[in-house]
Amino acid sequence: MTVEWLVEPGLKPYEEAVRGMEERVAAIRAGSADELAWLVQHPPLYTAGTSAREEDLLAPGRFPVHASGRGGEFTYHGPGQRVVYLMLDLATRGRDVRRFVRAIEGWLIATLAEFGIAGERREGRVGIWVERPGGEAKIAAVGLRLRHWISYHGVSLNVAPDLSHYDGIVPCGIGEHGVTSLADLGIAASMDEVDDALLRRFASAFGERPKELASTAPTSGRAG
Question: Which domains does the chain have, with CATH numbers?
C-alpha cells in the first residue's frame, strides 16, 4: 500500500476531520483506499481524550470542547499548530503499538532537529519535550486510536500557535510543566517549511516516502 500525503488548506472543523478519518479507516480496511498522512489546522478548540479528568478543564466556556476517542487527556488545537492525522495499517507494520509510538516520536524529534531544536522523550510521558530557560516544556503531543489495527488521530506540533490558549486546560494532565513552540523558542519557521521537514523525515521513521496529493478528499480511494 502507498502512504498518501495530504495538506488540507484553511482551518478544518474538528467534527469533519473525525468523520473523514473514520471513513478513511474503513476504506483502508476494505482495501479501497491507501494509507494516509493528513495535515490540518483547526480553529481554536479543546479535545478530551479517553483519560481526561473534568477538573483539568479550567475554562469550560473558552473554546468548544470535543470528546475524542484518542488516548490521553485534554489538549488544545488551533491555528499555528500542525496536526497530522496518521491512518496507517499496523497489521502490515508488525502489530507493535509501542514500536509504532517510538517511530512517531523519532519522526518528530528528527523534524525538530532540522530547525536546531533538541526534542526529547520523557519516561512516563507521551510526547516530545524541550529544555528551555525556566524548565522543560512540551512542544509536540501524540494521541492515537486503533481500529482493526489501523491507526487514526495522530500528532500535534506547535509551530506558532497562541500559547495563552493552553491556559484553559491542564495540557495532557501535566500541570507542573509548560508548553512551547518553534516561535516561542525563537525559530521563525513557516508552516510550509515545517511540512517539508515532516515529509523529508517520514521515510526514515516509517520506511517509505509518501505520495504527495495536490487536492483530494481524505475518504477517496486510490488514484488511478
Answer: 3-213 (3.30.930.10)
